[in-house]
Sequence to fold (338 residues):
Amino acid sequence: MRILGIETSCDDTGVAVYDTELGLLGHRLYSQSGLHADYGGVVPELASRDHIRKVLPLTREVLAASAVQPQDLQGIAYTAGPGLAGALLVGAAIGRSLAWAWQIPAVGVHHMEGHLLAPLLEPDPPSFPFLALLVSGGHTLIADIQAHGRYRVLGESVDDAVGEAFDKTAKLLGLGYPGGPAIARAATGGSPERFRFPRPMTDRPGLDFSFSGLKTAAALAAKDRVLDPQTIADIACAFQEAAIDTLVIKCERAVTATGHRRLIVAGGVGANRLLRERLADLAASLRIRVYFPRPEFCTDNGAMIALAGSMRLTAGSCDEPAFGVRPRWPVADLSPPG
Ligand code: KG4
Ligand code: ZN
Fold:
């Protein structure tokens, strides 16, 4: 089965073609980050309008690059939520319309299921069950992935998502948007000794997270100081150390509590090099395996939506030719396909 995947939940337009026998045939991503940079964050209405401009040209490009004609497709998958309502509606409207015109089924995909399944795009993918650390701009959670569609959230952020904390800290340091890569870049010139920030909620049992205090610690360090390049690098470094350390401590706790031997990492913050290194060290010390999607499939992309859609369509799920979107949609509401 060959599926076209469309991702438009936030500020990236992603389109891909996935073949259940051959794997990923092609994908394209257009990032709107330049458009939103002046505002220090995503402006929803601008995002929707830019998706409208980009989805069809990217679809044409991906089909041509994959040597796939519309009549070679057996389905369309689009992100149906969670995300920005207007942005989601663009992908849903275009995905549904193409499916109607080409007379093929379409399925609305949960954005986080896309992230959770992204490691399956890689060679030597993990088999179910596994533990997942999902770290994005909107979510931070550890989940027990028992099977496709059977997800149990073991812990999540009680306030800011870790990506959001990266973005807010970058903004207060004047590092621009998106903040994650900017903090990681600035941190390379910083010292981990000058500032030490807390590892929130690691001093009590449980797998929940809290990142708003960490952002406040960075704000306090920046307050009443001249933000010269070295100070910015030192704060970025201390922030990154504390955020990554916190994630790694909770992963270790989750592995010990559940006995899982496989840990997957998903979501935009999964592209962070320090996180990848520290989790690889943890996996070696616990004798488990850790799986990361390549960095471009950690952040939002069409490939993970095409893959997740193909898994639901092949299992017999297919939505009515009508669409709605769910800007808020707890992943625990999902059930197995079929
Ligand atoms: O998964 P994603 O692309 O979009 C959402 O679904 O939210 O995640 C975006 C988040 C942003 O907060 C961004 O700053 C963060 O991922 N991010 C990173 C890195 N690359 C992206 N955070 C830390 N280090 C990175 N290298
Ligand atoms: Zn995402």
Summary: The two ends are 16 Å apart (CA to CA). The beta strands are 2-7, 12-19, 23-31, 75-81, 106-110, 130-135, 140-147, 150-156, 262-266, 289-291.
